[in-house]
């Protein structure tokens, strides 16, 4: 813990942490020392972790990287972090992220962008770590935590993992409790780990996952010993390669990486089959209706009364307006506007209802493949390597949304997906592949992930 605290101090220019908690960390580490001395070490005893600012940490800064939650220190602890502490893990601090987890580059944070520790060969340009769990990914990649919590609504664990050469898994919807995780789009949000390798991700997910009476969408299915899957044979597993993921204009580099992944899995004894997920092209537009719709509803609670920031106003409605105007950033406001629009009486059927129908079709595409015997699906994790800070922000927001093209389908279908580092781009940046599994079959993803990493 001391070594990590020193490393955090030396790496402050990355802006990965929004709050460092040296005192709390040392106190937790001392408690772990006592457990170890007593011969009572638990699964994560003394392991120093970073926590995404989206997770409620009792008595500590929890602001979803937003101005509107200024000063918010919850009186409760999220279930996921409670599980980690119950296994002996140590909290180093809260990690930067896109505001309310809305973004793909960690440039929408109230606390400013996170810098990736990576650079292109021969260049000193600062790169994004991806988002929204950009602080988590950068911190794991820079070795300023041993592992991190993250969340994924449309790719926010897998895309930053791919951009930083780390491993990130979004478990099946319902695997981890959402209780105490600041809500973005409740039917899509899932917590998961970002870690250095597949084994660490397996160990962390085992601890994070649980059924929870406080989240009725969490599911009572046994959480297997994921670590036992690491390195197990993948012989005979059927891996689907969806033709719809070969996008027009896909770079030769990404295609090459995908082919390489196919070859590795084949060499390891897996069977490769071509599959079709015909509704893939509708996933991104449908996601950018469903996610903002739910966000606009979830974010209605930030009114200047119950949490954080309060601005002055001539009456209560004026105070609400002023607080929300000052408290939310531009991307969050855009989502609220889109969400409110697609849910409004005149447009509900045309947009929201239609998007929900599309969601069902996307889910069915996957079900048909799994019913036909496919064990997992291999795709690229992102359409490109990391880009420069400022390179895509502020331009056309759709340009940024396209980053999620390979990841959002998985959230729409509620499936587990893992991003695993698979190689470097021509410019020396990490590139990742994604494996998508059957519901609650994260174990198979850990098996296959070990072959790729
Ligand atoms: N980039 C996507 C968005 O902005 C996904 C975010 C996430 O998974 N939290 O909505």
TrEMBL record:
Swiss-Prot/TrEMBL GO biological process terms: translation
One matching Pfam family: Amidase
Keywords: ATP-binding, Ligase, Nucleotide-binding, Protein biosynthesis, Transferase
Keyword Hydrolase: no
Record: active site: 52, 132, 156
Domain Amidase: 1-445
Keyword Iron-sulfur recorded: no
PROSITE patterns: AMIDASES (PS00571)
One annotated GO molecular function: glutaminyl-tRNA synthase (glutamine-hydrolyzing) activity
Gene3D superfamilies xrefs: Amidase signature (AS) domain
Domain of life: Bacteria
First-tier enzyme category under EC: ligase
Catalytic activity reported: L-glutamyl-tRNA(Gln) + L-glutamine + ATP + H2O = L-glutaminyl-tRNA(Gln) + L-glutamate + ADP + phosphate + H(+)
Stored InterPro entries: Amidase, Amidase_CS, Amidase_dom, AS_sf, GatA
A cellular-component GO term for this protein: glutamyl-tRNA(Gln) amidotransferase complex
E.C. code: 6.3.5.7
Sections of the chain in a coiled coil: none
NCBIfam families referenced in this protein's UniProt entry, alphabetically: gatA
Record function comment: Allows the formation of correctly charged Gln-tRNA(Gln) through the transamidation of misacylated Glu-tRNA(Gln) in organisms which lack glutaminyl-tRNA synthetase. The reaction takes place in the presence of glutamine and ATP through an activated gamma-phospho-Glu-tRNA(Gln). Hydrolyzes indole-3-acetamide (IAM) into indole-3-acetic acid (IAA).
Family: Belongs to the amidase family. GatA subfamily.
Subunit record text: Heterotrimer of A, B and C subunits.
Protein name: Glutamyl-tRNA(Gln) amidotransferase subunit A
Biological classification of the source: Bacteria, Pseudomonadati, Pseudomonadota, Alphaproteobacteria, Hyphomicrobiales
